[in-house]
Amino acid sequence: MRLRLHPGAASVVGAAAVALLGATWRIEIRGLEREREARGLSGNVIYPFWHGRLLALSWTHRGRHVQVLASEHYDGDLMGRIIARLGFGHLKGSTTRGGARALRELAAAARDGLDLGLTVDGPRGPRGEVQQGVIELSRMTGAAVLPIADAARPRRLLGSWDRFQVPAPFARVIVDHGAPFVVPRDADAAERERLRRGLEETLAGMTAKLDRDLGYADGEVWPHADH
After folding, report:
1. pTM of the full predicted structure?
2. Which of 8, 73, 128, 209 has an alpha carbon within 20 to 30 A of 31's alpha carbon?
3. How many Cβ atoms are within 10 Å of 221's Cβ, its own excluded?
């Protein structure tokens, strides 16, 4: 039987651990001009990123009140509470369970001018496959989609479905931004699918490049060998 702390208590410990770890990282942010470009397209942005690369971004984007969707099961609730303590907004729900309601809540936040952070292959995968929700959110709200990726060295990759990346203490962490875009309100199904595939290829390419920039061999870069 696995002993679980109350999510409130566990989130205090978790947020403190992220802060202690993140304070040691050597962080390089690339592509900030693309964020300025995205905000020129729309006042607020949607950051799509891989579920397994969440940890570093929870530190680099702390305190910016980015709204993040967290599922209501224990692990999702705990992560939501941790990132709330780091200065994120925490919306409860899942794009796979009650997905329509979750999309409505995210869209309402975007229409209020808030930025969104979306794990586009979460909460349960398949890893590396962008779900359609991010495309629908941009189409519904006019918010710009700003791809974001990160990598770290040294790191530990957990054995979970998403190969969750935990940067080591004093790791070098690189965050990069891709070219932003807005999904037209009148985009048909074929156009939305084209944009979804394009985003998937962009995120995969950005992540693999960052892994290579940090010196990982081909068998270690995104997508990893077991993908």
Report:
1. 0.91
2. 128
3. 18
Would you state the structure tokens that stand for residue 37, as one six-digit string?
């470009």
Residue 120 Rama label (left phi>0; alpha psi -120 to 50; beta): alpha
Taking every pair of Cα atoms in the chain, the longest distance, rounded to a whole number of angstroms, is 52
Q: Pick from 221, 52, 203: which is nearest to 127 by CA?
A: 52
Cβ-based neighbours of 5, under 8 Å, separated by 6 or more: 13
Q: Answer whether residue 1 shows pLDDT above 60.
A: no
Q: What is the dihedral of CA 212, 217, 221, 223, to 10 degrees?
A: 130
User: Which of 28, 49, 40 lies closest to 164, judged by CA?
Assistant: 49
Nearest to 68 by CA among 6, 110, 128: 110
d(CA 180, CA 186): 18
Task: Name the residue type at position 185.
Answer: R
Sequence-distant (≥ 6) Cβ neighbours of residue 192 within 8 angstroms: 132, 135, 136, 139, 183
Phi, psi of 91 (to 5 degrees): -100, 130
Q: What is the pLDDT of residues 76-128, one digit of tens each?
A: 677 878 888 999 998 876 655 556 788 888 999 999 999 999 999 977 779 99
Residues 169/21, Cβ–Cβ less than 8 Å: yes
Which residue has tokens 């890893």?
A: 127
User: Around Cβ 17, how many Cβ atoms within 10 Å?
Assistant: 11
